[in-house]
């Protein structure tokens, strides 16, 4: 039996890498803020990502953009996200939607509207009610490593480590243990090293280089390196939208080290690259 990830009312088979396409319904996201704030624009973008081969749509209404992330109220976040989720569910009930939020009330309402996954960049840390909502609804849960609050988690404010890998893995493990203690089933949990979150470029590189240590825990691993700052530094691209090719490189390196889900802006190119990389892996395992 291939491994799988249990979600609210279905499972995803992990026999090939999955692509999670990003739909930011925000005015201020670092790479595409404001482009898809109108519900029709976000739904149109989501349709394009599905046509390009997205397996999951990750819909978020609050940015963690470095330096300028503005906290958003529950009402405002729901006003941004719910119409998009409802319109997509009305069109295609089979679409797998993940809600990118740190707020339990937002997660609960969006699951009620049809989402399958809660993607919490705080690792269920910032809202004490979040783990309970995840446990009660039976949603799939992405537990990501970060430090600090929404306004500074994507900065270097908390990026001081004596031993980066050990500390990052220990802190993430604490969050996984807390989720399981609150009743979230192990089969519903995926983990994410949180590329760029409280991490300098060298930390992001190390998290990717040593991803196998996280993969070894046995949970599906989600990686979101798409268009992030370390890619800009490595490729000399100031504009996030210019970082597509570097992002595809990061996705392939993550897949090669065992990542199961790649969270990306550029779904089509990533899908093609992953199809080739996974065919090469399959051919290798068939001949072994
Ligand atoms: N990165 C961002 C947001 N959510 N979720 C997971 N699981 N992993 C990530 O690496 C991750 C995430 C930041 O990227 P983006 O959504 O493009 O930007 P913003 O936070 O500015 O909306």
CATH architecture assignment: Alpha-Beta Barrel
Strand tally is 10
Radius of gyration: 17 Å
Query: How many independent structural domains?
Result: 1
Shape label: globular
Q: Identify the quaternary structure here.
A: single chain
Helix content: 40-55%
Terminal CA distance:
19 Å
- Order of strands in the sheet with the most strands? 8-7-6-5-4-3-10-9
Q: What is the beta-strand fraction? A: 5-15%
Query: How is the main sheet built?
Result: 8 strands, parallel
**Helix and strand pattern:** EEEHEHEHEHEHEHHEHHEH
Mean pLDDT: 95
Contiguous uncertain segments of 5+ residues: none
How many helices does DSSP assign? 10
Bound small molecules, by name, code or SMILES, are:
6-hydroxymethylpterin-diphosphate
CATH superfamily: Dihydropteroate synthase-like
What does this structure look like?
The chain has 288 residues and is of the alpha/beta class. The chain has one domain: Dihydropteroate synthase-like (TIM Barrel). Helix content is 42%, strand content 14%. The protein is built from ten helices and ten strands. An eight-stranded parallel beta sheet has the order 8-7-6-5-4-3-10-9. It has a two-stranded antiparallel ribbon with strand order 1-2. β1 and β2 form a beta hairpin. α1 packs across α2, α2 runs parallel beside α3 and α6 packs across α8. The longest helix is centred in the C-terminal third of the chain and has 21 residues. The model has no long low-confidence stretch (mean pLDDT 95). It binds 6-hydroxymethylpterin-diphosphate. The site of 6-hydroxymethylpterin-diphosphate (HH2) has 21 residues, from β3 and β7.
């Amino acid at each position: 039996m291939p491994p799988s990830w249990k979600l609210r009312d279905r499972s995803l088979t992990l026999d090939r890498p999955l692509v999670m396409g990003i739909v930011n319904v925000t005015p201020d996201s670092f790479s595409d803020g404001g482009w898809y704030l109108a519900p029709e624009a976000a739904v149109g973008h989501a349709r394009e990502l599905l046509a390009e081969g997205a397996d999951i749509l990750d819909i978020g209404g609050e940015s963690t953009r470095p330096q300028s992330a503005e906290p958003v109220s529950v009402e405002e976040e729901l006003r941004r996200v719910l119409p998009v989720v409802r319109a997509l569910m009305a069109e295609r009930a089979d679409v797998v939607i993940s809600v990118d939020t740190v707020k339990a009330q937002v997660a609960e309402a969006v699951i009620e509207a049809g989402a399958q996954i809660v993607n919490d960049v705080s690792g269920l840390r910032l809202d004490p009610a979040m783990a309970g909502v995840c446990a009660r609804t039976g949603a799939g849960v992405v537990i990501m490593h970060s430090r600090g609050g929404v306004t500074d988690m994507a900065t270097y404010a908390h990026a001081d480590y004596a031993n980066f890998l050990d500390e990052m893995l220990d802190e993430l493990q604490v969050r996984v243990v807390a989720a399981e203690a609150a009743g979230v089933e192990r089969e519903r949990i995926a983990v994410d090293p949180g590329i760029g979150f409280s991490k300098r470029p060298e930390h992001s590189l190390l998290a990717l280089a040593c991803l196998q240590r996280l993969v070894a825990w046995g949970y599906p691993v989600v990686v979101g390196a798409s268009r992030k700052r370390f890619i800009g530094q490595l490729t000399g691209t100031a504009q996030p939208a210019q970082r597509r090719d570097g992002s595809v490189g990061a996705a392939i390196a993550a897949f090669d080290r065992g990542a199961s889900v790649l969270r990306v802006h550029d779904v089509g190119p990533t899908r093609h690259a992953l199809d080739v990389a996974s065919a090469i892996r399959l051919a290798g395992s068939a001949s072994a």
